[in-house]
């Protein structure tokens, strides 16, 4: 845009010089004054256009505002972060992350579109341009940061193991878990945690946590590795399950993920996160949607 303004300026200046270049000295001051006036006007125009660009944003932010739509990718089946509300007519995806997505869309003044997919395909959808960002309880690991940008973390959770209450005395320490079959959601930090700390264990990696829980209920695995925020609602829904005393001593953070090079949009995301943290909304949403998920499980 600045190049276009510059081209217009040069054209105008050359026109003035052509008119005055062949004249006497009396025309020199007139030519100089006209040139200065043109340059001043051009500078004002460039400044106005730059301000307009700053207001609308650049890159992804500008794209979202121009389209009037924010496309958020998520992976349902991970309550209370995101799950399908089986009681709704349209089977909408709801949860903590969806409340955050709504708050961001409202801040940007655009409509919200949710695209539901498996977690293993979610992060690949970002560089492919299928979604604007992913909000799905994604952990900002060092490996992921190499190719993607993350917002500030908005939730923090312990890494735990769900077991049958009848096995409570068996799994008191991490050593007690060695050698037993475990399950975890595919492509998650929980899966990597088992692979790192319990490399000799048989690990069943499935697309959704409910599938992992079913493996536990059917006796095919002895425990399901989850983050505590997610595990809580399964305990609310089924009193035969509990967290093992054994734990990994690791904490999992959740953040919004998007393509690199969108600092202006990241600034807005971080502001929305802080606003809702300060208001206590994340704690409220976790409690609310954990209970809804548990109630849905009892339907």
Summarize the structure.
The protein is an alpha/beta fold.
Task: List key phrases describing it.
12 helices; two-stranded antiparallel sheet; alpha/beta; 299 residues; single chain; D-Maltodextrin-Binding Protein, domain 2; 10-stranded mixed beta sheet; disordered N terminus; 12 strands; 19% strand
List the domain count as a whole number: 3
Beta-strand portion reads 15-25%
- Estimated radius of gyration: 28 Å
State the shape.
globular
What is the CATH topology descriptor of the largest domain? D-Maltodextrin-Binding Protein, domain 2
Report on the architecture of this protein:
This protein is α/β, with parallel strands linked by helices and 299 residues long. The protein has three domains: 2-56; 66-135 and 262-297, D-Maltodextrin-Binding Protein, domain 2 (3-Layer(aba) Sandwich); 156-252, Periplasmic binding protein-like II (D-Maltodextrin-Binding Protein, domain 2, 3-Layer(aba) Sandwich). The protein has helices at 2-21, 26-56, 59-67, 96-108, 119-122, 142-145, 174-177, 189-197, 209-217, 228-237, 263-278, 281-297; strands at 69-74, 83-84, 93-94, 111-116, 133-138, 149-150, 155-164, 182-185, 203-206, 223-227, 241-243, 251-258. Helix 10 (228-237) packs parallel to helix 12. The model is unreliable at 1-32 and 41-56 (pLDDT under 50).
């Amino acid at each position: 845009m600045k190049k276009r303004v510059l081209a217009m300026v040069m054209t105008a200046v050359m026109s003035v010089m052509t008119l005055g270049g062949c004249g006497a000295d009396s025309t020199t001051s007139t030519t100089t004054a006209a040139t200065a006036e043109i340059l001043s006007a051009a500078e004002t125009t460039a400044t106005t256009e730059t301000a307009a660009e700053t207001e609308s944003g650049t890159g992804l932010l500008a794209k979202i505002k121009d389209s009037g739509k924010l496309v958020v990718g998520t992976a349902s089946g991970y309550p209370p972060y995101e799950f399908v509300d089986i009681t709704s007519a349209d089977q909408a995806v709801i949860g903590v992350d969806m409340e955050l997505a709504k708050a961001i869309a409202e801040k940007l003044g655009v409509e919200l579109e949710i695209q539901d997919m498996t977690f293993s395909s979610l992060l690949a959808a970002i560089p492919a341009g299928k979604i604007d960002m992913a909000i799905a309880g994604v952990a900002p690991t060092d490996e992921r940061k190499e190719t993607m940008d993350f917002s500030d973390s908005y939730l923090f959770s312990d890494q735990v193991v769900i077991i049958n209450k009848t096995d409570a005395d068996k799994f008191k320490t991490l050593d007690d878990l060695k050698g037993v079959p475990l399950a975890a959601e595919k492509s998650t930090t929980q899966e990597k945690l088992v692979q790192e700390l319990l490399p000799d264990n048989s690990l069943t990696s499935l697309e959704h946590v409910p599938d992992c829980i079913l493996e536990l209920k059917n006796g095919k695995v002895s425990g399901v590795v989850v983050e505590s925020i997610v595990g809580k609602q399964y305990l609310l829904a089924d009193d035969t399950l509990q967290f093992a005393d054994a734990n990994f001593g690791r904490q999992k953070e959740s953040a919004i993920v998007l393509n690199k090079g969108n600092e202006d949009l990241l600034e807005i995301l971080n502001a929305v996160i802080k606003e809702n943290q300060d208001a206590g909304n994340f704690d409220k949403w976790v409690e609310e949607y954990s209970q809804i998920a548990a109630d849905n499980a009892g339907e």
